[in-house]
């Protein structure tokens, strides 16, 4: 499909930026509204960052450890001792496997006994929490959302306060102040919170300009080729450029704070069983939204790269029409042609 025809933009080719613009708009809106409304469960995996608490407090549960020294075999009974040691090793492996299964069951139920959720996630406008399903140790575990905060631009999530309230109200009646939670974890979350409002504004602008670009493409489709002039092309270039810029900055900020947050939380929470998960799906749709709007920008920029005479010269079929109206200046046919 040729973009240019007879020195003008082919209206049929405008279907390309139209489809790309609506795709950019939908993806930007998904990134913006993930974790809100009726799609909290379906779009939970599209978070900026998730904090895994399923291992939190495991150091409070005693586990079996091997201790004591084994007798030293002499040269006379070494063969007998080797046989005994081999049998004990097999029995020990079986016991270890059974203990591992028990510890996995404890890992799945510990957060419930503490009164906390197994994960907490941060979105652009909400913070959510829930448990892993079917359980925390299952290879195919997914996010089962139990609660989300009210939708708000620039949401501020305080993990320390949430854990203290939930542990204090938990079935074990523990004092949350006695359970060590590194201050650096909350400081990292505060760092993420400081960017959420700016990221929200950029995604709103990016989705808004993408939507306007889509509407502008519809307008261009309704125009005749001869009326798609410099002004209409410049308007589409500006809208696509603004959408591309906003989505690029917002995607870069979201990627940077997510990667930094995951790295610092994993480093600080390793000793207490707190880890972080990067929002890979969120980053994917965000960067794809940027990519489709960038392609839209390139589409509208192509005519500006062509020679001025090739793009804006009067097409031959218009000249022929003009001569025909002059030659047939009489009668109703001439009037009809002049009005056209």
Mean pLDDT: 76
Task: Give the total of beta strands.
Answer: 7
Kindly report how far apart the N and C termini lie: 29 Å
Q: What fraction of the residues are assigned to beta strands by DSSP? A: 5-15%
Helix content estimate: 55-70%
Structural classification:
alpha+beta
Described by strand count, sense and barrel closure, the largest sheet is: 5 strands, antiparallel
Number of helices: 9
N-to-C SSE series?
A: EEHEHEEEHHHEHHHH
Describe it for me?
The chain has 340 residues and is of the alpha+beta class. The chain has helices at residues 15-33, 78-114, 159-168, 183-222, 230-269, 280-305, 308-312, 316-327, 331-339, and strands spanning 4-5, 8-9, 49-52, 119-122, 127-133, 142-148, 275-278. The protein has a five-stranded antiparallel β-sheet. A two-stranded antiparallel sheet has the order 1-2. A hairpin with an 8-residue loop joins strand 5 (127-133) and strand 6 (142-148). Helix 8 runs antiparallel to helix 9. The longest helix has 40 residues, at 183-222. It is elongated, with a radius of gyration of 32 Å. 31% of the residues are buried. Residues 62-77, 94-103 and 310-337 have low confidence and may be disordered.
Which descriptors would you attach to this protein?
340 residues; alpha+beta; five-stranded antiparallel β-sheet; two-stranded antiparallel ribbon; 9 helices; 7 strands; 58% helix; 9% strand; elongated
Q: Helices, strands, pairings?
A:
Blueprint: E1 4-5, E2 8-9, H1 15-33, E3 49-52, H2 78-114, E4 119-122, E5 127-133, E6 142-148, H3 159-168, H4 183-222, H5 230-269, E7 275-278, H6 280-305, H7 308-312, H8 316-327, H9 331-339
Antiparallel strand pairs: 1-2, 3-4, 3-7, 4-5, 5-6
